[in-house]
Every structure is written in structure tokens, then in C-alpha cells.
């Protein structure tokens, strides 16, 4: 924005109201540098709290009309922005417990805008229409986005508020759009295209209707109440996080994922609708999968499928470049496992050592029944049984099988899982 001809500019920074009052008396109405105002000096006690006020400050009615750099005003006593600069070339930061409205403030800010900390602000009416950087209005209990900026060239963050709708939000966002931690049931009002990350996690979404069509960064819809991914974005440049929902189907997901795909902690019985290709890591743990049937064919990194009631590894998965984890899946067969499915496959140890476990248990029970059998040997057998139980991971290579033991703290956890075994061991001793 060009400097208005009727504005007399002071070349430098101004800190404090007293300094600006002197310049104002000299006829200056603008500042080329930064304007910092921290209202303090006089202590006033109210309800047990202390507030700091500048004894000469009566509001910004005679403040600078133009600030070429950053403008930061903290602990202002005004309830609106009347008298604030009409243009700020840098960042605008306002932190006040009194502010109830953004009306009267600048309509264009060249840098970022932050109104975080203004706990009395309930809407964005009067906010700058164009913001050259980020716009931050998170965690201030906003009820709506009405009156907010139309164009945000950086990130837009309205997380942690009381929003139930994104209507009247910005039409264009050049960076991330963060609206997590609200009370959203739908996404109507979002721009059709987000260049950065779109995070609508930790809301009350039951549908992705209204979601942006294209997301250049990550798409995060985790920790909601979604049962389907229909109406979600058709193109995502980064990771896709849809974990911790109520998904019964992945229909509507993207066809290919450029980074991470996480659909863990849902109610999926198959992987139909999943991306065919996942470039990096993929997790579908803690679901209800019985096999690997579905759309997923290739995973460029690790594949985590822990805590599923798998009956077999049969399905459409053709290749896993990284490690393939199948812990606590209760597998009784390796049918479907090929050399292309991971350079190492991790399963619960009981799958491989069941016979050895049973043999040691029987020996401990048998010899422990006879008084003439040395108790020390029975203890050694029981200790061996526990060590075998603590083998948590089994690495299945292309040519050989390798077992790696976990730390001793797993003993208690394992005994809880195998209560009957623990009781038998004690009887044997």
C-alpha cells in the first residue's frame, strides 16, 4: 500500500505511548518502522487481580494512521480497534482481555495477524480483509468466523474455539488451514483448494461434506465420528490421517498417498477403498481385519497391521518395502506371506515358539511334582519358560528366521496375558 500523501512519516521505530505523544505533537501521523505499545506503569487492583495501565494512555484515538513495520499492542483497555492504524506493513499483534470487536482496525495487513489471547472476542467482525501472512485466532472461544479475512496468504488457524461451522471463513488460504479442536459437524464454508495442510481433527464430524477438493499438504480428519471418507479431498499432496474414527469403510479415500496413510483405531473389516499405493508408512492397526483383501497393493515404507483378528495374510497387497508388523493378530498360518512383503516381518512370538513353550511348561509341571527333583532345576526351567515368553518379536527374513528378545519388564505384562501359565508355574515350584 503506498503511503498517503497527507501522512507525515517518522523514519524509525516508536516504543510506548509517551514517545508517540511527542511525535504526534510535532505533526507526525505515521511511522515507517515498528510501533510497540505495552500499556503499563500504574497498578490497579480489581477482584484480586493486578492490571497495568499507562497513566497517560486513553486509547489509540490519536495513534498513528500508518505503520510500515510491525504493530504490537498488549494489554490495551479499548473494547474495539477505533484509532488503530489503517494500514500495517508488517505483523499486527493484539493481546487484550478487554477487546470485544475488531471494528475500526486496519483493512489490510502486509504480514501476519494474531488476536490470540483476546478472551472476550466472540467473532471476527472488522478484521482485515486481506492478510499477507498468517491469521491466528485460536483458543479464544470464538462462536463464528463472520467478518473475518477473505484472503489469507499464509496459514489460517482458528483451532480450539467453539465453532460449529466454517461458514463466512476465508475464501482463499495460501498455507495451512487449521480448524481442529472445535465442535464442527460439517465442513461447509471451506475453500475448495488448500495449498498447505488441512487439519479438521478432534471435532464432531460425521461427514466430510464441504471438505476442500485439493489439499497440497497433509489432510487430517482424525479423532472424529466419521463412518466413511466420502466427500473428502480427491487429491492430497502429503499424508492422510483418518485414524480414531468410526470408519467401517475407506470408500472415498484418495487413490494414491504421497506420504503416510493412517486408518488405525477404526472398525474396518477390509481395506477396500484404501489408496493403491502408499509412498511411505501405512497403518491399519486396531481394526477388525480378517485378511488383507482390498485396494492396497504397495507400501513404500513400513506397514503396521497390529491388533487385528487376522485369519490369513491373503489379499491384494503385493509389496511392502519396509518392515511388516503383525503383532497380537493371533495368526496361525503364514499363508499369503511372500518375500516381497517386507524385508522383515514381525509377529507375536507365541506363533513361532508355541511348541517350545508347551514343552518347557510340561517339563516344569512334570518335574515339579516330585520331591526328589532338585528345586533349583525346576526354577531354571521356569526361568527359561519366562524368557521364551518375553520374546515379543520374531523377524522373518527371506532366508532365515531370527528372534530378538524384549526387555525383562514384559514379564509381568505377559503373565497377565497368560494367567493360567503363571499359575501352573507356581504350582510346579
Structural summary, described in words:
This protein has 429 residues and is α/β, with parallel strands linked by helices. Among the domains are: 1-156; 351-428, no CATH class. The chain has five helices and 35 strands. The strands form five sheets. It has an 18-stranded mixed sheet. The chain has an eight-stranded parallel sheet with strand order 1-3-7-9-11-13-15-17, with no helix packed on it. A four-stranded parallel sheet has the order 25-27-29-31, with no helix packed on it. It is elongated.
SSE arrangement:
Layout: E1 9-10, E2 14-15, H1 17-25, E3 30-31, E4 35-38, E5 42-46, E6 49-53, E7 66-67, E8 71-74, E9 87-88, E10 92-95, E11 108-109, E12 113-114, E13 130-131, E14 135-136, E15 151-152, E16 156-157, E17 172-173, E18 177-178, E19 193-194, E20 198-199, E21 214-215, E22 219-220, E23 235-236, E24 240-241, E25 256-257, E26 261-262, E27 277-278, E28 282-283, E29 298-299, E30 303-304, E31 319-320, E32 324-326, E33 345-348, H2 350-368, H3 375-389, E34 393-396, E35 401-404, H4 410-417, H5 419-428
Parallel strand pairs: 1-3, 2-4, 3-7, 4-8, 7-9, 8-10, 9-11, 10-12, 11-13, 12-14, 13-15, 14-16, 15-17, 16-18, 18-20, 19-21, 20-22, 21-23, 22-24, 24-26, 25-27, 26-28, 27-29, 28-30, 29-31, 30-32, 32-33
Antiparallel strand pairs: 5-6, 33-34, 34-35
Amino acid at each position: 500500500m503506498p503511503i498517503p500523501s497527507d501522512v507525515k512519516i517518522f523514519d524509525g521505530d516508536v516504543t510506548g505511548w509517551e514517545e508517540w505523544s511527542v511525535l504526534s505533537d510535532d505533526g507526525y501521523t505515521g511511522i515507517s518502522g515498528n510501533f510497540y505499545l505495552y500499556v503499563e506503569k500504574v497498578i490497579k487492583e480489581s477482584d484480586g487481580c493486578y492490571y497495568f495501565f499507562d497513566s497517560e494512555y486513553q486509547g489509540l484515538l490519536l495513534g498513528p494512521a500508518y505503520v510500515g513495520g510491525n504493530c504490537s499492542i498488549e494489554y490495551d483497555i479499548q473494547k474495539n480497534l477505533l484509532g488503530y492504524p489503517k494500514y500495517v506493513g508488517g505483523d499486527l499483534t493484539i493481546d487484550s482481555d478487554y477487546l470485544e470487536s475488531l471494528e475500526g482496525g486496519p483493512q489490510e495487513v502486509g504480514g501476519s495477524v494474531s488476536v490470540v489471547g483476546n478472551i472476550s472476542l466472540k467473532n471476527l467482525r472488522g478484521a482485515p480483509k486481506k492478510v499477507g501472512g498468517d491469521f491466528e485466532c485460536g483458543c479464544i472461544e470464538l462462536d463464528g468466523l463472520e467478518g473475518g479475512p477473505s484472503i489469507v496468504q499464509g496459514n489460517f488457524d482458528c483451532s480450539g474455539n467453539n465453532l460449529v461451522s466454517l461458514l463466512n471463513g476465508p475464501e482463499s488460504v495460501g498455507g495451512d488451514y487449521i480448524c481442529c479442536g472445535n465442535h464442527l459437524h460439517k465442513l461447509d464454508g471451506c475453500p475448495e483448494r488448500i495449498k498447505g495442510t488441512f487439519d479438521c481433527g478432534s471435532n464432531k464430524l460425521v461427514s466430510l461434506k464441504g471438505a476442500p477438493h485439493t489439499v497440497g499438504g497433509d489432510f487430517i480428519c482424525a479423532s472424529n465420528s466419521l463412518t466413511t471418507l466420502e466427500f473428502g479431498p480427491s487429491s492430497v499432496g502429503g499424508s492422510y490421517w483418518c485414524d480414531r474414527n468410526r470408519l467401517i469403510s475407506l470408500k472415498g479415500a484418495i487413490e494414491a498417498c504421497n506420504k503416510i496413510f493412517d486408518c488405525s483405531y477404526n472398525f474396518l473389516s477390509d481395506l477396500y477403498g484404501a489408496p493403491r499405493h502408499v509412498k511411505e508408512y501405512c497403518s491399519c492397526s486396531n481394526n477388525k481385519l480378517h485378511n488383507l483383501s482390498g485396494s492396497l497393493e504397495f507400501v513404500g515404507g513400513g506397514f503396521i497391521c497390529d491388533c487385528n483378528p487376522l485369519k490369513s495374510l491373503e489379499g491384494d497387497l503385493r509389496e511392502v518395502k519396509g518392515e511388516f508388523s503383525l503383532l497380537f493378530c493371533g495368526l496361525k498360518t503364514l499363508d499369503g506371506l511372500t518375500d516381497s512383503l517386507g524385508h522383515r516381518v514381525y509377529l507375536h512370538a507365541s506363533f513361532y515358539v508355541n511348541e517350545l513353550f508347551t514343552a518347557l511348561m510340561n517339563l516344569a509341571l512334570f518335574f515339579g511334582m516330585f520331591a526328589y527333583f532338585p528345586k533349583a532345576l525346576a526354577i531354571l526351567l521356569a526361568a527359561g519358560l519366562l524368557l521364551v515368553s518375553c520374546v515379543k518379536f520374531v523377524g522373518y527374513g527371506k532366508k532365515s528366521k531370527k528372534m530378538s528378545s524384549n526387555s525383562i519388564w514384559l514379564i509381568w505384562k505377559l503373565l497377565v496375558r497368560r494367567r493360567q501359565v503363571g499359575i501352573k508355574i507356581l504350582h510346579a515350584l
